[in-house]
Amino acid sequence: MTHPAVIDELMTLVDPGKVLTDPASLEAYGKDWTKHYPPAPSAIVLPKTLEQVQAIVAWANRHQVALVPSGGRTGLSAGAVAANGEVVVAFDYMNQILSFNEFDRTVVCQPGVVTRQLQQFAEDHGLYYPVDFASSGSSQIGGNIATNAGGIKVIRYGMTRNWVAGLKVVTGKGDLLELNKDLIKNATGYDLRQLFIGAEGTLGFVVEATMRLDRAPRNLTAMVLGTPDFDSIMPVLHAFQGRLDLTAFEFFSDKALAKVMGRGDVPPPFDTDCPFYALLEFEASNEDVANDALATFEHCVEQGWVLDGVMSQSETQLKNLWKLREYISETISHWTPYKNDISVTVSKVPAFLRDIDAIVAQHYPDYEVVWYGHIGDGNLHLNILKPDDMSKDAFFASCARVNKWVFEIVERYNGSISAEHGVGMTKRDYLGYSRSADEIACMKAIKAVFDPNGIMNPGKIFAPE
Ligand code: MLT
Ligand code: ZN
């Protein structure tokens, strides 16, 4: 734990009352949405300016204090968990949209701007911030950048990385760097901006981000389709992608749907029970597009790939269909799931899912397994639910044995052990399944350049040595 006199010095660097050490704050700010590690930070500091962030970093280097950057704490890999006496740097008071340029279609944000705040700002200006996910109401832009957040629109718009025009960062050394100057074209060597995106706060702090906006989509329309088996989902994706520009293509299993139905506040898509469901979305900007979608649906039914389906006819129906997918994560969190977030190239998805499903079923026939994910991106979410009568520790210990088998399959398929949730602490011991030893050595060398004293989020991405 950090010495009280050192914490007293920290208090002189920020506004009065902006260092918290009470048990409730330590508990709240020391964790994210994972439930694996008990939070144990020394203190929470809430800077208001980038100069204060620089002062905090200089202080941490002087006293060799580990810092954990904290956003909305909605992460699912313990990337923002402070379990070892670190000081949490939270950006709740750096939450302003600083400027907007309508010609560049860019917005300068402080790191604590909430994703929905940016989406709303874009909408108010007739534009669109397309990175979206269930936690957009509390996740922050700084955290999205740190994890290169993905979500439900990646098939069309890509990950957060695609929307970052420029960054101001304070490195682990305390330097303030302005990266890319918001340019579209910039061929002047290494793009350091990209290194900070997805770095999980291990290189420094994002203190300002210029985010790009897009034109607003026209008449978004969703379809939910029931399929007779998982393999049918791929030809359905192929058929729709051949005729429409999809803005989303998601899937979920009957078990996932049953959990959401169990809430009692979402209407079912249709009466036919199906083992798997696809949710796709497109801009029905004119009647031709809607007719194309219906013709493709009929083709899929004729081929036997689709058993039943529904297309939204209103904004309310669109929202209700999306709830079927977006409510899954929050709903199953009741069962303290063991979560996996894996990806392969899209063409490999059916064989990959079959292999993993078989391994899990063989070793854990009694556990309930819930599949869903961003199938159009090759990103599957495997969730194993904790039986009610089992302790959390016993359950996670037993699931940890699945990791090795699942990640061996990921490696065999040349996939990723984390598609979008990040490595954090939960996957740091398995990084070698997705990255070669030489790559990891390069990554550590890059960290040493920006953070020579190792104060920035130690123990994340890489296992402690
Ligand atoms: C999702 O796709 O719903 C999110 O990544 C969260 C989750 O996997 O539970
Ligand atoms: Zn996801």
Spatial strand order of the main sheet: 15-12-14-13-17-18-16
Number of domains: 4
Task: Measure the end-to-end span.
Answer: 20 Å
Q: Report the top-level CATH class of the largest domain.
A: Alpha Beta
Which fold name is given in CATH as the topology of the largest domain?
A: Uridine Diphospho-n-acetylenolpyruvylglucosamine Reductase, domain 3
Bound molecules: D-malate, zinc ion
By oligomeric state, this entry counts as single chain
Spans where pLDDT lies below 50 across 5 or more residues:
none
Portion in beta strands: 15-25%
**How confident overall, as mean pLDDT?**
96
- What CATH architecture of the largest domain would you give? 2-Layer Sandwich
Give me the secondary-structure topology:
Elements: H1 4-11, E1 19-20, H2 23-29, E2 43-45, H3 50-63, E3 67-70, E4 87-90, E5 97-101, E6 106-109, H4 115-124, E7 127-128, H5 141-147, H6 154-157, E8 164-171, E9 176-179, H7 192-196, E10 204-212, E11 214-215, E12 220-227, H8 233-243, E13 246-253, H9 254-263, E14 276-283, H10 287-302, E15 308-311, H11 315-326, H12 328-332, E16 338-343, H13 349-363, E17 368-374, E18 379-385, H14 392-412, H15 437-450
Parallel strand pairs: 2-4, 3-4
Antiparallel strand pairs: 1-2, 5-6, 6-10, 7-11, 8-9, 8-10, 12-14, 12-15, 13-14, 13-17, 16-18, 17-18
The chain binds D-malate and zinc ion.
Residues 374, 381, 420 line the site of zinc ion.
